Amino acid sequence: MSGDLYGDPYGTAYLYTKSYQIQNPARPQPRGASASDAYGFTSNASLILSKVLSNTQDFIKLANHQSRFFGEINSLMGTRSTDNTTIDNEEGQAFDSKHINCSQNGIHERLAEIVQKHKTTQFQKPYQSHNLEAFELLREKIRLQTHSSLILDSCCGTAMSTLILAERHPDSLVVGVDQSAARLSKVCDADNQVRTLPDNCLLLRANCEDLWRLCVDHDIHFDSHYILYPNPWPKSVHVKRRWHGHSVMPYLPKIAERTILRSNWLLYLQEFSAAWQQLTGQASEPQQLNITTPLTLFERKYAGSGQALYELSVSLREL
Ligand SMILES: C[S@@+](CC[C@H](N)C(=O)[O-])C[C@H]1O[C@@H](n2cnc3c(N)ncnc32)[C@H](O)[C@@H]1O
Q1: Which of 17, 126, 270, 312 is buried most deeply by CB count within 10 Å?
Q2: Given ligand 1 and candidates 70, 179, 214, 299, which is best to mutate, with the most ligand atoms within 8 Å of its CB?
Q3: Domain limits, the chain
Q4: Backbone torsions φ then ψ of 170, nearest 5 degrees
Q5: 102 in ligand 1 pocket by Cβ < 6 Å?
Q6: Which CATH class, in words, describes the domain spanning 111-315?
Q7: pLDDT tens per residue, range 226-267
């Protein structure tokens, strides 16, 4: 049996086994942060781009589905946001990849206050049904599959890192999660080739906000948790959209023994580290990486354009 990709927000199964065809691309995406939001990609920009592409086969293919449309456009064009941050190209094709541009001089002045508030208040947003379904599939896979350890790859995008981790840890169960069906539909390996999932790999379309909470509430505990190149939200006003400023942050130290983040934006990792320390009492510093074998498409792109890349590794402490 090959590995599976699940996560069905609308009751129509997205079941991926040997191939990775989207079953129903015309369905809208659930509400939630998308990469295009994170990088300030506007609907006006999409209209302009739709005109540019209107006579092409690409547009016909893309017009079915707005979020897929955004994703494809981002792949086709290195569109720039208002922050002068190049929109990320999922396929990691070579083009100018600018450094993150942020007006903050250091850790966000309100971060400690925000983390404190989230630490002392209950995150009460109701679970979305497709995330509950994805969680049930995760539980079932864990129950059925023998594994020596559990690895979570959150915001896995096109799952290159999930596949690499599954290959590196054949006795572990590696779970990749992303909210974007468009990205998951392009599951590819380090050579950018679409390929079959190994048995020890599960891909879920789900929002991490819900999945993380469900894992904690149901005592599903991972050995390692990777969050590689999360959407950075560089505008100061968007601090609460960064994972460490998000109301789900207090759940993160409870998910895994070790949490590993990577980013091309050092400040993001420094802020995450500060929030982690506030929650757990444990300090850790981001380290600069020397990339020889990229783990993700974004990593390959950033490293290829000469950007400094950093990793933060933090551990669980009983709370
Ligand atoms: C910048 S991409 C990085 C993808 C991949 N880790 C890589 O390095 O190539 C960020 C990814 O996070 C996903 N994402 C953002 N917010 C999410 C959420 N709340 N739940 C699940 N996935 C999310 C996006 O769909 C996107 O694929």
Answers
A1: 312
A2: 179
A3: 111-315
A4: -60, -20
A5: no
A6: alpha beta
A7: 999 998 999 999 999 999 999 999 999 999 999 999 999 999
